[in-house]
Structure prediction request, 212 residues.
Amino acid sequence: MDSDDWLAPDFTEKLVSAAEAHTADLVIAPFWMVYPENYVEHIRPWEKALQHVLQRNPPRTRAYGYLPAGVYTGQEYAKHLIQKPNTFYYGSPCNKFYRRDLLRKHSLHFRKELFAEDQLFNTEYLRYVRTAVSIPDIGYYYLQNSQSVSHSRVTTADILSLRRRVMLLYRDIYTELGIYPETRAAILRSPFGENEFTLPPLDTPQTHCCKL
Prediction:
Protein backbone atom coordinates (compact mmCIF):
# COMPACT_ATOMS: atom_id res chain seq x y z
CA MET A 1 0.00 0.00 0.00
CA ASP A 2 1.39 3.41 -1.00
CA SER A 3 1.69 6.04 1.70
CA ASP A 4 -0.83 8.39 0.06
CA ASP A 5 -3.49 5.73 -0.62
CA TRP A 6 -6.13 4.49 1.80
CA LEU A 7 -8.61 1.67 2.44
CA ALA A 8 -12.27 1.50 3.34
CA PRO A 9 -12.51 0.48 7.03
CA ASP A 10 -14.00 -2.94 6.26
CA PHE A 11 -12.07 -3.72 3.06
CA THR A 12 -9.48 -6.07 4.57
CA GLU A 13 -12.21 -7.95 6.43
CA LYS A 14 -14.10 -8.52 3.17
CA LEU A 15 -10.97 -9.82 1.43
CA VAL A 16 -10.20 -12.20 4.31
CA SER A 17 -13.80 -13.43 4.50
CA ALA A 18 -13.81 -14.26 0.79
CA ALA A 19 -10.46 -16.05 1.06
CA GLU A 20 -11.62 -18.14 4.02
CA ALA A 21 -15.03 -18.95 2.52
CA HIS A 22 -13.50 -20.41 -0.65
CA THR A 23 -10.01 -21.44 0.52
CA ALA A 24 -8.76 -19.02 -2.12
CA ASP A 25 -5.17 -18.41 -3.13
CA LEU A 26 -6.07 -14.95 -4.42
CA VAL A 27 -8.88 -12.45 -3.82
CA ILE A 28 -9.29 -9.42 -6.10
CA ALA A 29 -11.57 -6.38 -5.87
CA PRO A 30 -12.35 -3.22 -7.85
CA PHE A 31 -10.68 0.03 -6.79
CA TRP A 32 -11.08 3.79 -6.95
CA MET A 33 -8.57 5.77 -9.02
CA VAL A 34 -8.60 9.10 -7.20
CA TYR A 35 -7.44 12.39 -8.72
CA PRO A 36 -6.76 15.32 -6.37
CA GLU A 37 -7.81 18.81 -7.44
CA ASN A 38 -4.19 19.88 -7.98
CA TYR A 39 -3.33 16.93 -10.26
CA VAL A 40 -1.23 17.86 -13.30
CA GLU A 41 -1.37 15.29 -16.09
CA HIS A 42 1.85 14.24 -17.84
CA ILE A 43 1.20 12.71 -21.26
CA ARG A 44 4.15 11.01 -22.95
CA PRO A 45 4.81 11.78 -26.65
CA TRP A 46 3.73 8.32 -27.82
CA GLU A 47 0.52 8.57 -25.79
CA LYS A 48 -0.21 11.92 -27.40
CA ALA A 49 0.44 10.44 -30.85
CA LEU A 50 -2.10 7.67 -30.21
CA GLN A 51 -4.88 9.91 -28.94
CA HIS A 52 -6.67 9.78 -32.31
CA VAL A 53 -6.87 5.99 -31.86
CA LEU A 54 -7.16 5.63 -28.07
CA GLN A 55 -9.20 8.32 -26.37
CA ARG A 56 -7.57 9.12 -23.04
CA ASN A 57 -9.92 9.47 -20.08
CA PRO A 58 -10.01 12.90 -18.42
CA PRO A 59 -8.30 12.92 -15.00
CA ARG A 60 -11.45 12.33 -12.98
CA THR A 61 -12.04 10.01 -10.02
CA ARG A 62 -13.58 6.73 -11.18
CA ALA A 63 -13.91 3.09 -10.11
CA TYR A 64 -12.36 0.26 -12.14
CA GLY A 65 -12.79 -3.50 -12.15
CA TYR A 66 -12.85 -6.10 -14.92
CA LEU A 67 -13.55 -9.52 -13.41
CA PRO A 68 -17.20 -10.29 -12.57
CA ALA A 69 -17.78 -11.33 -8.97
CA GLY A 70 -17.39 -15.08 -8.54
CA VAL A 71 -15.05 -18.00 -7.94
CA TYR A 72 -12.52 -18.99 -10.62
CA THR A 73 -9.92 -21.67 -11.17
CA GLY A 74 -6.37 -20.46 -11.63
CA GLN A 75 -6.59 -21.11 -15.37
CA GLU A 76 -9.88 -19.22 -15.66
CA TYR A 77 -8.43 -16.26 -13.78
CA ALA A 78 -5.34 -16.25 -16.00
CA LYS A 79 -7.50 -16.24 -19.14
CA HIS A 80 -9.40 -13.18 -17.91
CA LEU A 81 -6.21 -11.39 -16.88
CA ILE A 82 -4.52 -11.74 -20.27
CA GLN A 83 -7.38 -9.82 -21.90
CA LYS A 84 -6.37 -6.70 -19.90
CA PRO A 85 -2.80 -7.45 -18.77
CA ASN A 86 -1.56 -3.87 -18.38
CA THR A 87 -4.28 -2.64 -16.05
CA PHE A 88 -3.67 -1.59 -12.48
CA TYR A 89 -6.64 -3.82 -11.59
CA TYR A 90 -4.68 -6.97 -12.49
CA GLY A 91 -1.13 -5.65 -12.06
CA SER A 92 -1.26 -3.91 -8.69
CA PRO A 93 -1.17 -5.81 -5.37
CA CYS A 94 -3.20 -3.12 -3.59
CA ASN A 95 -6.64 -4.50 -4.45
CA LYS A 96 -5.73 -8.13 -3.72
CA PHE A 97 -5.28 -10.64 -0.92
CA TYR A 98 -2.61 -13.36 -1.10
CA ARG A 99 -1.81 -16.54 0.80
CA ARG A 100 1.22 -15.99 3.01
CA ASP A 101 2.16 -19.66 2.96
CA LEU A 102 2.44 -19.55 -0.86
CA LEU A 103 4.60 -16.42 -0.71
CA ARG A 104 6.95 -18.09 1.76
CA LYS A 105 7.00 -21.49 0.10
CA HIS A 106 7.94 -20.07 -3.30
CA SER A 107 10.05 -17.14 -2.01
CA LEU A 108 7.89 -14.60 -3.80
CA HIS A 109 8.72 -10.95 -3.16
CA PHE A 110 9.05 -7.63 -4.93
CA ARG A 111 12.14 -7.26 -7.08
CA LYS A 112 14.34 -4.18 -6.96
CA GLU A 113 12.90 -2.51 -10.02
CA LEU A 114 12.49 1.18 -10.75
CA PHE A 115 8.82 0.63 -11.50
CA ALA A 116 6.26 -2.13 -12.19
CA GLU A 117 7.78 -4.51 -9.65
CA ASP A 118 4.16 -5.13 -8.62
CA GLN A 119 3.20 -6.39 -12.09
CA LEU A 120 6.19 -8.75 -12.13
CA PHE A 121 5.18 -10.04 -8.69
CA ASN A 122 1.56 -10.65 -9.70
CA THR A 123 2.63 -12.37 -12.90
CA GLU A 124 4.90 -14.75 -10.98
CA TYR A 125 2.10 -15.45 -8.48
CA LEU A 126 -0.12 -16.75 -11.30
CA ARG A 127 1.89 -19.97 -11.23
CA TYR A 128 0.49 -20.89 -7.83
CA VAL A 129 -3.15 -19.77 -8.00
CA ARG A 130 -5.55 -22.71 -7.90
CA THR A 131 -8.62 -20.77 -6.74
CA ALA A 132 -9.27 -17.05 -7.24
CA VAL A 133 -12.22 -15.04 -5.94
CA SER A 134 -13.49 -11.73 -7.28
CA ILE A 135 -15.58 -9.62 -4.91
CA PRO A 136 -17.69 -6.60 -5.97
CA ASP A 137 -16.78 -4.37 -3.02
CA ILE A 138 -14.70 -1.29 -3.91
CA GLY A 139 -12.41 -0.67 -0.97
CA TYR A 140 -9.02 0.59 -2.18
CA TYR A 141 -8.41 4.27 -2.99
CA TYR A 142 -5.48 4.74 -5.36
CA LEU A 143 -4.41 8.38 -5.28
CA GLN A 144 -2.81 9.64 -8.49
CA ASN A 145 0.38 11.60 -7.85
CA SER A 146 1.75 13.47 -10.87
CA GLN A 147 5.22 13.53 -9.25
CA SER A 148 5.46 9.77 -8.67
CA VAL A 149 8.11 7.65 -10.40
CA SER A 150 5.61 6.03 -12.77
CA HIS A 151 4.23 9.41 -13.84
CA SER A 152 7.39 11.49 -14.06
CA ARG A 153 10.55 9.37 -14.42
CA VAL A 154 9.60 6.31 -16.47
CA THR A 155 10.50 6.55 -20.15
CA THR A 156 8.84 4.97 -23.17
CA ALA A 157 11.86 2.67 -23.52
CA ASP A 158 11.39 1.54 -19.90
CA ILE A 159 7.76 0.66 -20.56
CA LEU A 160 8.46 -1.23 -23.79
CA SER A 161 11.30 -3.18 -22.18
CA LEU A 162 9.13 -4.17 -19.23
CA ARG A 163 6.18 -5.22 -21.39
CA ARG A 164 8.36 -7.44 -23.55
CA ARG A 165 9.83 -9.01 -20.42
CA VAL A 166 6.38 -9.64 -18.96
CA MET A 167 5.13 -11.05 -22.28
CA LEU A 168 7.89 -13.68 -22.22
CA LEU A 169 7.01 -14.46 -18.61
CA TYR A 170 3.34 -14.92 -19.59
CA ARG A 171 4.43 -17.31 -22.34
CA ASP A 172 6.31 -19.50 -19.87
CA ILE A 173 3.66 -19.42 -17.13
CA TYR A 174 0.69 -20.00 -19.44
CA THR A 175 2.57 -22.92 -20.95
CA GLU A 176 3.00 -24.37 -17.44
CA LEU A 177 -0.73 -23.85 -16.81
CA GLY A 178 -1.57 -25.71 -20.03
CA ILE A 179 -3.43 -22.79 -21.61
CA TYR A 180 -0.80 -21.25 -23.89
CA PRO A 181 -2.26 -22.38 -27.25
CA GLU A 182 -5.63 -20.75 -26.56
CA THR A 183 -4.12 -17.56 -25.11
CA ARG A 184 -1.14 -17.18 -27.46
CA ALA A 185 -2.69 -14.38 -29.53
CA ALA A 186 -3.62 -12.39 -26.42
CA ILE A 187 -0.12 -12.88 -24.99
CA LEU A 188 1.48 -11.60 -28.20
CA ARG A 189 -0.82 -8.55 -28.05
CA SER A 190 -0.14 -7.95 -24.36
CA PRO A 191 2.63 -5.33 -24.77
CA PHE A 192 0.10 -3.09 -26.54
CA GLY A 193 -2.80 -3.57 -24.11
CA GLU A 194 -4.72 -0.64 -22.67
CA ASN A 195 -5.06 0.36 -19.03
CA GLU A 196 -7.34 2.51 -16.89
CA PHE A 197 -6.20 5.71 -18.57
CA THR A 198 -8.12 4.70 -21.71
CA LEU A 199 -10.46 1.84 -20.70
CA PRO A 200 -14.04 2.61 -19.57
CA PRO A 201 -14.68 2.74 -15.80
CA LEU A 202 -17.31 0.95 -13.79
CA ASP A 203 -20.76 2.52 -13.77
CA THR A 204 -20.38 3.73 -10.18
CA PRO A 205 -21.20 7.36 -9.26
CA GLN A 206 -18.24 9.36 -7.97
CA THR A 207 -20.43 10.41 -5.04
CA HIS A 208 -19.87 6.88 -3.68
CA CYS A 209 -16.16 7.58 -3.40
CA CYS A 210 -14.74 10.55 -1.59
CA LYS A 211 -13.85 14.22 -1.62
CA LEU A 212 -10.29 15.54 -1.39
Q: What stands out?
A: The chain has a mean pLDDT of 88.
